[in-house]
Write a structure and sequence with these properties.
The chain has 680 residues and is α/β, with parallel strands linked by helices. The protein has 4 domains: 9-104 and 332-347, 2-Layer Sandwich (Nucleotidyltransferase, domain 5), CATH 3.30.420; 121-326, 2-Layer Sandwich (Nucleotidyltransferase, domain 5); 367-567, DHBP synthase (Alpha-Beta Complex), CATH 3.90.870; 574-678, SCP2 sterol-binding domain (Nonspecific Lipid-transfer Protein, Chain A, 2-Layer Sandwich), CATH 3.30.1050.10. Helices cover 31% and strands 21% of the residues. It contains 21 helices and 26 strands. Strands 13-21-20-14-15-19-16-18-17 form a 9-stranded mixed sheet, sandwiched between helices. Strands 3-2-1-4-5 form a 5-stranded mixed sheet. The model is unreliable at 567-572 (pLDDT under 50). It binds fe (ii) ion (FE2). Fe (ii) ion (FE2) binds at residues 102, 106, 125, 128, 303-304, 332.
Length: 680
């Protein structure tokens, strides 16, 4: 250990999409946060100032208290200076900064938080750093070895390491050339040519008309039919994946909007089924090939592809690895965690400190802080803090109520694990449609996942393994499929979370109390957010959410919160209509929309983030998509958006000068943006 009376703080920071920051104190995670939770823009990345400030404030320290900062960024952006993406960063000269490459950061995110003392480490994602930015090539087998002048055009696609004696050694790295110039098929990966993650994301964008959670494709797959498509997407040879492109021309019906998705549901579901099977084939091939290079009983796994819970069970069942740890924030949101652990273990040469297993890494909100938030909402809600609030919550769930469950610090990563969750009784078949339509405002095919007491998991599910982070599926046992229909997917599987008292004591107690009342220790658990929005971070955000949907009860810390009748506004659906309208307008007015031009990021306060791209041949509106360089960012409430649409010229000026439309970027672009509303 470092001999010091003062604690040693190491800050990790990731500047990819899904940016984040993570602070280690003496080798343990003190706090970590994803940028999207703070800016309320899904997948937000780039400049890390807000995420860093949050971590420092939560720990009660200043920047100068840090011993070391470790960072990672994509696309050589750090060579262009620290201010390149979204403005100046908070770094200063007093603290040393180390930069590591993308897959190495993913690898350390898995190793740092895994329970394994020794393991192989696999990283598979869409696109990492370029060959010439890699800091982990030493000793590695690298079948693709581009000449020096081309190294900036080849990117990491999968990497394999061994972790032993507190040290990570690189075994194998595969690279893929940049593919943006390839013929413009609608389903082509728009980053690297041959990566598994890049192809899966491309298919997801084809099916869902935008940059949404690729996990949705996995959820859609069981609705598809086998045998409709039999092209092999991947050519698998020499232990490597190559995306074939000869089939791509046949796919020329990319989804434009939700209406089209509904209309052609079976077409898109059949594609999802086929792409999912191909993904599984490619993953198993690569992992089996890497195993032979450096066998191990245990596998630690990260990178965006590791979020595929269906494929993850196959890895456990169909490879020689006996145990698997999947980093819960396997996507680029986990890079900051990996950077921090690299700093502690490799840069400072310290022993890894075993992680607690809890992913509730956000700052906790409790007691007076929660009471203060409730006080501000007392016109709209009633609340009480009974001693037996957990038992009362279980009774409400057993009686068919939907519950927003907000406890302590938020989970880091895409899954809600009992800290920012919406919960319901899984025996009620109607819950799935109700929560999708009335609480989360999302598509009706989206499945829900169950939480279960770890010791009871094998009663309901065919599993002999733990799944604490909801990224492994298990078949629901036949006798339980009809009993818990709202968490049983079409293929009779469930993306389970096994809950232990040592990791999540309150949530464990709630499941126990529910078992006492309902006879089963399973709850429907979905994340506390609506479609296209990040998970709620603060009590105020939870209260706003609660008051704008049909959620029955909110449990904030130990307070049970109910809506007062006069405080119940209509569920917000103006934006839903707006999205449908504008997509129709863009389709009907392609030339006029192109003439307006520009890329606009529209943040509808408390609702969603929309990207309106009028810069291409096909003007589009996407949700949650990254837009690193929008012409303008426009912040507006739903109500003011409606007003703006009634008379874009006059109301636009009035709202602008009243400070109700907040514009970042060129005001001129913002004025042009309002012209969209004149199109019919
Ligand atoms: Fe990645």
């Amino acid at each position: 250990m470092v001999k010091s009376e003062k604690p040693v703080y190491v800050l990790g920071t990731g500047l990819s999409h899904d940016g984040s920051a993570c602070l280690l104190k003496d080798g343990r995670i003190r706090v970590a946060i994803e940028k999207e939770r703070l800016t309320r823009r899904k997948h937000d990345g780039g400049n890390d100032t807000e995420a860093i400030s949050y971590c420092l404030e939560a720990a009660g320290i200043t920047y100068n208290d840090l011993t070391l900062v470790v960072q990672n960024a994509n696309f050589s952006m750090l060579r262009q200076g620290n201010d390149w993406w979204q403005g100046p960063r908070a770094l200063n000269q007093t603290v040393p900064v180390v930069t590591i490459s993308h897959h190495l950061a993913h690898a350390y995110s898995a190793i740092g938080t895994s329970p394994f003392e020794e393991a192989a480490v696999m990283v598979i994602d869409g696109c990492g750093n370029s060959f010439d930015d890699c800091t982990d090539l030493e000793g590695a087998l690298a079948p693709e070895n581009p000449s020096p002048e081309l190294r900036h055009l080849y990117f990491e696609k999968d990497s394999y390491y061994v972790f032993k004696d507190n040290k990570v050694t690189t075994v194998h790295k595969d690279f893929s050339p940049w593919g943006a110039n390839l013929k413009n098929y609608p389903m082509r990966p728009n980053t690297t040519l041959h990566s598994i993650g890049g192809l899966y994301l491309a298919a997801s964008m084809y099916v869902f008309s935008g940059f949404e959670d690729p996990g949705k494709l996995m959820g859609l797959a069981p609705y598809g039919r086998p045998g409709i498509y039999d092209f092999e997407i991947f050519e698998l040879k020499d232990g490597r994946t190559f995306v074939r492109y000869d089939w791509m021309e046949a796919f020329n019906r990319p989804c434009r909007n939700y209406e089209q998705f509904k209309q052609d549901f079976q077409y898109y579901a059949d594609i999802a089924y086929w792409v999912q099977r191909e993904l599984e084939r490619a993953i198993l091939y690569v992992i089996n090939a890497r195993y032979e290079l450096a066998p191990s009983k245990r596998l630690a796994y990260a990178g965006g592809v590791a979020l595929n819970a269906v494929a993850n069970r196959l890895i456990l069942k169909n490879t020689k690895f006996k145990d698997i740890y999947i980093q819960p924030a396997a996507g680029d949101n986990g890079l900051a965690v990996g950077c921090a652990y690299y700093g502690w273990m490799e840069a400072l040469k310290q022993e890894r400190v075993l992680h607690s297993g809890s992913m509730a890494l956000g700052r906790p909100y409790r007691g007076r802080r929660v009471a203060k938030a409730l006080e501000a909402y007392k016109e709209s809600v009633s609340f009480a803090a009974p001693d037996d609030y957990i038992q009362q919550t279980a009774a409400l769930l057993a009686a068919g109520k939907t519950v927003g469950w907000f406890q302590d610090g938020a989970e880091f990563g895409p899954r809600a694990l009992g800290h920012r969750s919406i919960l319901a009784d899984p025996r009620r078949v109607e819950m799935r449609d109700f929560i999708n339509a009335k609480i989360k405002f999302r598509e009706d095919f989206r499945p829900f996942a169950p939480s279960v007491l770890a010791e009871d998991a094998s009663v309901y599910f065919d599993c002999d393994y733990e799944s604490p982070y909801m990224i492994l599926i298990a078949p629901v046992r036949p006798e339980w499929r009809q009993v818990i229909p709202s968490v049983t997917h079409l293929d009779q599987s469930a993306r389970i979370q096994t809950v232990k008292a040592s990791v999540s004591p309150k949530y464990y107690e709630l499941l126990r109390a529910f078992k006492e009342q309902a006879g089963i220790s399973v709850l429907l658990n979905t994340s506390f957010n609506r479609r296209g929005m990040p998970i709620v971070e603060t009590p105020e955000q939870a209260l706003d959410f609660f008051l704008n949907c049909d959620l029955d009860v909110l449990v904030l810390d130990n307070f049970i919160v109910r809506k007062l009748p006069q405080g119940m506004p209509e569920p917000a659906n103006l934006t839903e209509q707006f999205v449908a309208d504008i997509r129709g307008v863009l389709e009907r007015n392609v030339d006029a929309a192109r003439k307006i031009g520009g890329v606009y990021k529209l943040n509808v306060t408390g609702a969603r983030t929309l990207i309106i791209d009028l810069s291409t041949d096909k003007p589009t509106m996407l949700e949650g998509a990254p837009a690193p360089n929008p012409s303008a960012v426009i912040n507006i409430t739903e109500k003011d958006l409606q007003t703006l649409r009634t008379d874009p010229d006059n109301e636009g000026v009035k709202l602008f000068y009243a400070g109700k439309i907040k514009v970042e970027g060129g005001a001129e672009h913002a004025m042009r943006f309002t012209q969209i509303f004149k199109l019919k």
